[in-house]
Design a protein that fits this description.
The strands form 2 sheets. Strands 2-1-5-3-4 form a 5-stranded mixed sheet. It has 3 domains: 100 residues, Beta-grasp domain (Ubiquitin-like (UB roll)), CATH 3.10.20; 135 residues, Fumarate Reductase Iron-sulfur Protein, Chain B, domain 2 (Orthogonal Bundle), CATH 1.10.1060; 117 residues, no CATH class. Helices cover 27% and strands 10% of the residues. The protein is α+β, with helices and mostly antiparallel strands. One of its GO terms (molecular function) is metal ion binding. Its cofactor is [4Fe-4S] cluster; [3Fe-4S] cluster; [2Fe-2S] cluster. This is Succinate dehydrogenase/fumarate reductase iron-sulfur subunit.
């Protein structure tokens, strides 16, 4: 055997302290090791040396050792990292390096975890839908569209972002409804694709992938070894597009004008709009300022009578004649002035528009509102 070049150069291998989790799905514990570390080595090198010397049965997943396959994901001193990209020089010589498996996923053995959750979510994510009027081989894209989503294609699927996301890291119950940041950027990439024929990706991300669970802590961006700006360039723009679609006033106005997304009238809703409705009356039980009557025949100030719809609603326990109390005046001091701060006032915040003498929730018999989807009583 030849002389180690580092030792020949006067740089002998240093002894370093490691703590590595050993165990399986039934349980385990951290075990201490003292191992030689040479200059320029990474954590994965040290694990391989342990496998060759003290711990031949140590299980560890790895492949390329070049930071491109994402196989050697682990937690090093509590932070999700790639073993092949974490240099030993980043730690103090006196520091004990603790290596544990990915916390979010079930342990198979030692540092190997079952990441099949991610493959299940990959299958659930709708694939690219090519345009029907363009033949394969004739797809054309502008360079700006290519560059916009190119960043997301750098993902090596190490699943460090999935592991660090607190939505599922400490809450297994969220996994069925949450796809995670890796697949949010997949949905964002396809939503940006000019040739993708699907138009419901943002709605699907919100309703089926659990986009609303994400609260933008940017943990996923911080641990990404490819430096993908997952949150800023993927998740936040997707959330903004969801909000634009649902809450943008111009979109709302367009939906009203062209009656897009309107719920068809059912027997349950039409039952509340039957009866005498005078000109200018608002539908659904609103007060008619011009004719002095309630739509749906709920109560007629002119005739003072109830029709059959009102009687049915009364049987449902809805008090249509309840007078809503007027707001009470806020308390003032001896000089007739409002208190300057809540510290000198007997109530927090502003006076209630319902009156300070009203306590919520109100009992049902005091309500004068019936939900439009309420079922009709069966006689």
């Amino acid at each position: 055997m030849g002389t180690d070049p580092q030792q020949a150069a006067g740089k002998p291998a240093a002894k370093r302290q490691f703590r590595i989790w050993r165990g399986d799905e039934t349980g385990g514990d951290l075990k201490d090791y003292t191992v030689e570390v040479n200059e320029g080595e990474v954590v994965l090198d040290v694990i391989h040396r342990l496998q060759a010397t003290e711990a031949p049965d140590l299980a560890c997943r790895w492949n390329c050792k070049a930071g491109k396959c994402g196989s050697c994901s682990m937690e090093i001193n509590g932070k999700p990292r790639l073993g092949c990209m974490t240099r030993m020089s980043t730690f103090e010589e006196s520091e004990t390096v603790t290596v544990t498996p990915l916390r979010t996923f079930p342990v198979i053995r030692d540092l190997v975890t079952d990441v099949s959750f991610n493959y299940e979510k990959a299958r659930e994510t709708p694939a690219f839908a090519p345009p029907a009027d363009v033949a394969p081989g004739d797809y054309r894209m502008q360079q700006v569209d290519v560059e916009r989503s190119q960043e997301f294609r750098k993902c090596i699927e190490c699943f460090l972002c999935q592991n660090v996301c607190h939505v599922i890291r400490d809450h297994d119950e969220n996994k069925p409804a949450f796809s995670g940041p890796r697949y949010f950027i997949r949905a964002a990439e396809l939503d940006m694709h000019p040739l993708d024929a699907r138009t419901d990706r943002r709605e699907y991300a919100q309703s089926d992938m659990g986009l609303g669970f994400c609260n933008i802590t940017k943990c996923c961006t911080e641990v990404c070894p490819e430096h993908i700006k997952i949150t800023d360039n993927g998740i936040i723009p997707m959330k903004e597009r969801v909000v634009d679609r649902r809450y943008d006033p111009l979109v709302w106005l367009g939906n009203k004008i062209f009656r897009r997304g309107q719920v068809p009238q059912t027997s349950a809703t039409s039952g509340h709009s039957s009866g005498a409705v005078t000109s200018g009356a608002a539908q659904g039980g609103a007060h008619a300022h011009g004719g002095g009557s309630h739509a749906g025949g709920v109560h007629s100030h002119a005739g003072g009578s109830h029709d059959s719809a009102a009687e049915r609603q009364a049987q449902q326990g809805v008090n249509w004649h309840r007078e809503v109390p007027h707001p009470t005046a806020p308390a003032v001091d001896a000089n007739g002035k409002l208190p300057l701060t809540e510290l000198t006032f007997n109530k927090a915040a502003a006076p209630s528009p319902f009156g300070d003498d009203v306590t919520f929730p109100l009992p049902p018999e005091h309500l004068n509102f019936a939900h439009p989807q309420q079922d009709e009583p069966k006689h």
